[in-house]
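Lay summary. Proteins are chains of building blocks that fold into shapes, and those shapes determine what they do. In this project we predict the shape from the chain. Here is one chain we studied, written as its sequence of building blocks.
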Amino acid sequence: MSVRALRSTFGPNCHWCGLAMDFDEPHGRPESATIEHLIDSTLGGVRSQKHRRLAHAACNHARNEFRMQAERQFQHWIAERQASEKTLNEK
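And here is the predicted shape, written in a compact code that computers can read:
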């Protein structure tokens, strides 16, 4: 599904912030329109047209950064939990 098709289906506003996107902005610029995959295939989602929306490049990037940051924090928490369990079992 293309940016044009998504725009005609969902309108000209960003899925995340709700503000209008600049469809004349060059690709990769913060206010340009990008296709956002609501359920990323790397997280077990199926790449489906119903999971695609339009989002500003900046909003899309920020969402991905927050998701990666949360994943890193969770992995760190798991490692600490496992280390704590080892310490308890060694006593």
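What the prediction tells us: The radius of gyration is 19 Å.
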